[in-house]
Amino acid sequence: MNQLEKYIVQSSEGLTIEEVEEAVRDIPMIRAELATVELPKQFPHLPVQTDLLCRFVEDVYGGQVSREDAGSAFLEAVFAVRYFHKPIDVIPDHLPRIGKLDDAMIVQTVIHRHAAVFRAFSRQSGLPWEDIGVLTEKG
């Protein structure tokens, strides 16, 4: 496990129920941000990747996907959604061209770590996995 993965795992394991609930409440604002924010060209899949995580979080939280089936992907997805939404993080989002670099790395790492879970979820949700834009060893 690399340092970024350790950071994601430790941060997600430390989430409180209140932080999970806050992330779920913030999803409409995150979707509005995805629709209006101008992202640098080096992150063409970030909006669809983040939306996939938002849908996953909503469906697990709402009971459409079981927490057991979601496993640790749920809390890691919550962490990634919260991280994307924070304007001040490791690299502040307002910095041109690089402000979303860390957000993209977090989102992509979570999807990559749990590719089987998210691939199944995307198919179940009618989202083409190919549009997610994450390369994995497993395809």
Percentage beta strand: under 5%
Into how many domains do the coordinates divide? 1
Q: What is the distance, rounded to the nearest whole angstrom, between the alpha carbons of the first and last residues?
A: 20 Å
- Count all strands and give the number: 0
The largest sheet is: none
Global mean pLDDT: 89
**Uncertain spans:** none
What's the alpha carbon Rg, rounded to whole Å?
14 Å
The rough form would be described as globular
Helix content: 55-70%
Element order, helices and strands?
HHHHHHH
**What structural category arises from helix and sheet content?**
mainly alpha
The helix count comes to 7
Describe this structure in words.
- By secondary structure, the chain is mostly helical.
- It has one domain (3-129).
- Helices cover 63% and strands 0% of the residues.
- The protein contains 7 helices and no strands.
- The chain has helices at 3-13, 17-36, 46-61, 67-70, 72-85, 101-113, 115-124.
- α3 (46-61) crosses α6 and α5 packs antiparallel against α6 (101-113).
- It is globular, with a radius of gyration of 14 Å.
- It starts with a helix and ends in a 15-residue tail after the last helix.
